[in-house]
Write a structure and sequence with these properties.
This protein is an alpha/beta fold and 325 residues long. The protein is built from 10 helices and 9 strands. The chain has a 9-stranded mixed beta sheet with strand order 3-2-1-5-4-6-7-8-9, sandwiched between helices.
Length: 325
């Protein structure tokens, strides 16, 4: 498949030369040619209607190679994936990081299509608490998209079964890579999504959720939490959740001291009690991959070995075999 375009969804306000730091009640959709500069707002063309944007993603997914009927090449199934950035990131930095992950991981490894969701982070260390509020308020657009895509893919599966036509089988998995406070956005989005689908058991909105340097409570996924807690809902709606952490992350060390009354950060400390979490949730200490990289908070994306780990998680390699070979 030719290199796919870049895609962006945003609830930032629009300014003359780009996207701002204010929350916009309107969600907007953009497309950028793969050879254009994503850091220049003029490179992006707005797709006026959400259905047209979804239609573009559908057409790309229809080009994905179908997997074998027996599932023997499951790890090669391609993805419709979303990248959600973190705190203190303006839209240019978000687009630049997204383009790098798309190039180095999705395009290089033929993983499928990656979409950027950029929310109104203030792009300033002083904006931590306002960012937290904007992150929470950014849940709706992601929930809306995930539920919509899931409904479409489920319908494709149903039609394939009823018509006994393997050509109609779903060719894409849905996955999410979230970084830093972007994990809080996803946490709240999945809670909203659960309500949209009436909190059913054993439904999968996201196949693989990769939580990088997650700025969320490290006891989020404890099984002794209420069934309607965010962590319980996330574990129910995701087939698998992998949390990548390192104690070297100074940014999350500062985050823990701002507002959390003793609750440590998942992306810095790992799971509070890995034996008392939902069985589809696991952690990986990536310290050995990020040593020597100046900004350890985002070093997973700058380390070829760490990116390879992300690839294997997305492909669905069993957690016990992530480091084989």
């Amino acid at each position: 498949m030719p290199t796919p375009p870049l895609y962006m969804i945003t609830n930032r306000n629009v300014e003359d030369d780009g996207l701002g730091i204010e929350l916009d009640p309107v969600t907007r959709y953009y497309e950028c040619a793969p050879d254009a500069d994503p850091a220049k707002f003029a490179s992006w063309t707005e797709v006026k209607k959400r259905d047209d944007f979804i239609g573009k993603l559908r057409k790309l997914a229809q080009r994905f190679k179908p997997i074998a009927a027996d599932g023997s090449d499951n790890e090669d199934q391609q993805h419709l994936s979303m990248f959600v950035h973190g705190f203190n990131v303006d839209w240019v930095s978000a687009a630049t990081r997204y383009a790098q992950i798309k190039r180095d991981l999705f395009d290089a490894k033929n993983l499928g299509v990656l979409v950027l969701f950029t929310w109104p982070s203030n792009g300033s260390p002083a904006g931590y608490l306002p960012d937290r509020e904007d992150a929470r308020d950014s849940a709706e657009p992601i929930a809306d998209l995930l539920v919509f895509l899931n409904d479409y893919l489920t319908e494709q599966q149903r039609q394939a079964a009823e018509q006994q036509d393997p050509k109609k089988l779903c060719r894409a998995k849905l996955s999410v890579i979230a970084h830093s406070m972007g994990n809080y956005v996803v946490q709240k989005a999945l809670a909203v999504g659960a309500k949209r689908v009436n909190s059913p058991q054993l439904i999968t909105l996201v196949h693989q959720l990769v939580m990088v340097a997650a700025d969320v409570d490290n006891d989020l996924f404890q099984t002794d939490k209420p069934e309607d807690s965010d962590g319980s809902l996330m574990a129910n709606l995701c087939y698998r959740i992998g949390a990548l952490y390192t104690g070297l992350d100074q940014v999350l060390g500062a985050s823990a001291g701002l507002k959390h009354f003793g609750t440590r950060r998942l992306g810095r400390s790992g799971l509070a009690d890995e034996k008392n979490v939902w069985n589809n949730v696991f952690e990986v200490d990536v310290s050995k991959f990020v040593q020597g990289i100046k900004n350890t908070h985002s070093a997973v994306f700058d380390s070829p070995d760490a990116l390879s780990l992300v690839e294997r998680i997305l492909r669905g390699v069993d957690r016990e075999h992530l480091f084989d070979g």
